[in-house]
């Protein structure tokens, strides 16, 4: 691909970003106002502004951190498996992964309100609590802040390197960048597993420090990738319709993304059920209290919604092959995935603060809009800063169905779904 074509593609991506950035920033501003006003209106003599704002902010943060981690995972496995079909989608995932520094900035309110959000931080002396003492030194102030900074530094470095070599290859097409991307992915998958597990444990499971689960990190990972795949499908559709990726996203990309989405529907259900079954079967108080608390009041309804809404409904909807390319089916399921993941994050974060049951407040909505708006603006900025897909990736021709030994091969029927042509 010549330099003029690359410049034209970059201009198209920049135009798409400029078109939508102001909207996302407006959403973020509206969300900030709603969150602050909601927290102020909800505060009581027993529960002040920080107690109302902190949990809502953490809930929204863990939702959008999922998209960052999911994008990183999909980028890593693309390089590890030397995949071809996902080349046109790579910049979408890379820029989701590159939200790591932005998420670090968005984590600052949680750092500031940590003692209000996490009950274990106010236990004095820490040795008086056996569960807390057993998790020394992770569950100490130094351990918590150290792990948090370490996770974001590691993720930011890894995503920067992946992005740097990906964009550099657009300019010179050197095979050395492909080798570097595989190198960073080879150790990056272990860094990803460690970072995801430690982040989920310290930031979300740490709300109830007594709880033990060896599957919690995998549980958060499964839900994160599941939601990210739904997001990538929807973004791909928008980018194709706007012409930004119109020439490279074909039937194969939509079908394979939906197939992975279906696979992670099953994987999440397996992990979630396994965690519950092992805890139920073991009947150890340090573990069972977690689910007992979530069977009280309206939380029981959320539990059942996660069982049927997070698994049964999307599983049945996506079971047919043609459903994966049917927009009247797949788009509602993608939107439903966001709703279910929000319920899942609420199920993990909120019972300790709202023991009577699920409650959607203005502060919840405001924090979600604020973090979502800022993260969307950051993604658009990254997406508009380079070509919308890796124009000199050695697997691009294969992704488009072009075979150099057979110039008449075409795309072998890999056309886009009829609704997105």
Brief account:
The protein is mainly α.
* Low-confidence regions: 406-421
Order of helices and strands: HHHHHHHHHHHHHHHH
Instruction: Estimate the helix proportion, in percent.
Output: over 70%
Strand count: 0
Provide the number of structural domains: 1
What attributes does this structure have?
421 residues, mainly alpha, 71% helix, 0% strand, globular
Molecular structure report:
There is one protein chain. This protein has one domain (11-420). Mean pLDDT is 91; it is low at 406-421. By secondary structure, it is mainly alpha-helical. Helix 2 (49-80) packs parallel to helix 15 (362-383). The two termini are 24 Å apart. Helices cover 71% and strands 0% of the residues. It has helices at residues 3-42, 49-80, 90-97, 100-106, 108-112, 114-117, 130-134, 141-172, 175-203, 216-241, 251-282, 285-293, 299-318, 327-349, 362-383, 396-399. The chain is built from 16 helices and no strands.
């Amino acid at each position: 691909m010549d330099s003029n074509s690359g410049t034209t593609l970059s201009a198209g991506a920049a135009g798409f970003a400029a078109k939508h950035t102001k909207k996302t920033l407006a959403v973020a501003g509206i969300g900030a106002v709603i969150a602050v006003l909601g927290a102020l209106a909800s505060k009581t003599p027993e529960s002040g502004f920080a107690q109302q704002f902190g949990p809502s902010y953490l809930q929204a943060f863990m939702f959008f951190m999922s998209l960052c981690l999911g994008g990183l995972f999909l980028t890593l496995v693309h390089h590890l498996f030397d995949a071809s079909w996902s080349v046109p989608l790579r910049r979408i995932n890379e820029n989701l992964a590159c939200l790591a520094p932005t998420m670090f900035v968005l984590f600052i309110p949680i750092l500031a309100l940590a003692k209000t959000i996490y009950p274990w931080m106010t236990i004095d002396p820490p040795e008086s609590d056996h569960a807390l003492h057993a998790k020394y030194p992770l569950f100490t102030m130094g351990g918590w802040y150290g792990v948090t900074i370490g996770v974001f530094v590691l993720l930011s470095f890894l995503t920067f390197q992946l992005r740097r070599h990906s964009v550099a290859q657009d300019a010179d097409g050197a095979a050395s960048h492909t080798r570097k991307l595989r190198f960073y992915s080879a150790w990056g998958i272990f860094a990803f597993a460690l970072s995801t597990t430690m982040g989920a444990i310290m930031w979300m499971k740490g709300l109830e420090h007594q709880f033990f689960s060896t599957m919690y990190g995998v549980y958060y990972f499964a839900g994160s990738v599941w939601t990210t795949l739904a997001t990538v499908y929807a973004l791909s559709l928008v980018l194709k319709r706007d012409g930004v990726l119109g020439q490279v996203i074909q039937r194969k990309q939509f079908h394979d993304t939906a197939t992975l989405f279906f696979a992670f529907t099953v994987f999440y259900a397996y992990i979630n059920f396994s965690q519950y079954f092992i805890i139920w079967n073991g009947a150890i108080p340090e573990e069972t209290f977690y689910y007992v608390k979530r069977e009280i009041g309206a939380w029981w309804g959320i539990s059942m919604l996660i069982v049927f809404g997070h698994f049964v409904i999307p599983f049945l909807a996506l079971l047919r092959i043609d459903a994966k390319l049917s927009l009247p089916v797949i788009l509602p399921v993608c939107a439903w995935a966001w709703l279910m993941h929000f319920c899942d994050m609420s199920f993990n974060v909120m019972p300790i603060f709202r023991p009577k049951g699920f409650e959607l407040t203005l502060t919840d909505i405001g924090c979600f809009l604020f973090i979502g708006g800022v993260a969307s603006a950051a993604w658009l900025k990254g997406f508009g800063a380079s070509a919308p897909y890796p124009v000199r990736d050695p697997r691009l021709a294969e992704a488009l169905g072009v075979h150099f030994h057979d110039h008449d091969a075409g795309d072998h029927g890999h056309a886009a779904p009829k609704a997105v042509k």
